[in-house]
Amino acid sequence: MPAKIILNPYSNRWGAGKQADLVSDTLQQLDYAFDLVKTAGPDEGIALAKTAAEQGFDPIVAAGGDGTISEVINGILEAGAGERARLGILPLGSANDYAFQVGIPLDVEGACRLLVAAEHERTLDAGRINDRYFMNDITIAFGAQVNIEAAKIKRLRGSLLYLGGVFKALRHYRLPIINCEWDGGVLENKSILLAYIGNGWRTGGVFHLTPDAVKDDGLFDFIVADGMGRLTALRLLPSTFSGSHIHDPRVMVARCTWLRMTSEDPLPALVDGEIIHREAHELYIEILPKALRVIVGPEKGKRPGQ
Predict the structure, then answer these.
(1) Which residues face 36 on adjacent strands?
(2) N vs C: which end of the chain shows fewer Cβ within 10 Å?
(3) pLDDT at 98 over 80
């Protein structure tokens, strides 16, 4: 059975679509057996990956950004094929955080060669938020609003796009009050700037909100930043590039296998780089240990300071 490649042409603002021919040509030159299909709209990758898993394709390859990876793993896990169908990745997105962390080259030729060789594989954790699976992270409140604002920016790409979203979101975002419990703690009537659940340690290309997270330890890293004013948030922002914000007294850091968050205020939630909820009031998140086999690079991506 050949590989199924699910390519999202919209990734990186249609940049992935422009590389579709290069992907096909490179894999053909490497004598790789594959069937490539392009998604035509949001969440279509889930259905395509589920069908591919049920038909026995292996690997099932996400060609796009972190959102494309998220859709593909939802399809694989919905089909109950996490132990059978390996996840392959061709990073064609804007930040490519997940691919970077698992050591996949960010150029098309390098990523294709690694996929074809498939010499290295890891069985990694996934997570679930309500009824949605994820692989890298969840950002709740301000961080999700950043993505909403970034989507409105037309002239920037990559990490600059997310930084632009930060400044736009700071102008008018209202801090929510949350209640949260997890296996190890509780917060009540807490004003927050953001909450972040990391299975991985990098997001948005430059932010390291959970710099010590491990993808196969059966735990999430979880942070909550206190509600704070715009200037204070701007002063704290640079420390998220290195991960040193976790030592700030205004940032709570924990590890957990599950958590439940509720709020009377609307909570936007960003899951693997895609807005899943704009006005959620209850979120339940749990770890799924060793959920998926992933074709990876020979070495992990470097963390801040390495």
Answers:
(1) 5
(2) C
(3) yes
Distance CA 186, CA 175 (A): 19
- What are the domain boundaries of the chain? 3-119, 134-289
| Band (157; pLDDT cuts 50, 70, 90) | low
3-state secondary structure 12-78: CCCHHHHCHHHHHHHHHHCCCCEEEEECCCCCHHHHHHHHHHHHCCCCEEEEECHHHHHHHHHHHHH
Read off the pLDDT of residues 106-146 as tens digits, 9 standing for 90 and up. Answer: 999 999 999 999 999 999 999 999 999 999 999 999 878 87
- In the numeric block, which tokens belong to residue 42? 């949001």
Q: How far apart are CA 133 and CA 272, in angstroms?
A: 9
What is the rounded average pLDDT of the residues 33-42?
A: 96
Q: Give the SS3 label for residue 257.
A: coil
Confidence (pLDDT) at 158? 59
Write the DSSP string, 169-216. HHTTPPPPEEEEEETTEEEEEEEEEEEEEESSS-BTTTB-SSTT--TT
Q: How far apart are CA 261 and CA 185, in angstroms?
A: 12
Which run of H or of E encompasses 226?
strand 220-226
Which CATH class, in words, describes the domain spanning 134-289?
mainly beta
The pairing of strands 220-226 and 185-198 is antiparallel
Domain topology for 3-119:
Rossmann fold (3.40.50)
Q: pTM here?
A: 0.92
